[in-house]
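Pilot study result, target chain (114 residues):
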Amino acid sequence: MKQFIRVMKALSDPNRVRLIKILAVKQLCVCELQDLVGLAQSTVSKHLKVLEEAGLVDYHKEGSWFIYRLTEGEESDYAGVMLENLEGWLSDEPQLQEMIARIPHVNRERSCVV
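Predicted structure:
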């Protein structure tokens, strides 16, 4: 029951759902996600942590960047089922369509300037 509740809570926030939908298109770092969703870097990081704890996303390191991606749902059957279902959901959401359309234009070197 705990894992089910964790996945449902993670997906109860619209910004976390947006992050999932964006990561379904392309693996990205926090700075790139920040540019796309228009939230503070710390807020994006907190959302990613919740999604990671629910088994919905994970990351790998490329140089100095942590690149986030969707999991295959291997940690949780619930996460896997929800990720599979989310593929076809919300495709007509205008704000999400606009964010996804901007993905090819995000630039890690420009976005992650310290």
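One observation from the pilot: The longest strand covers residues 57-62. A full batch analysis is planned for the follow-on phase.
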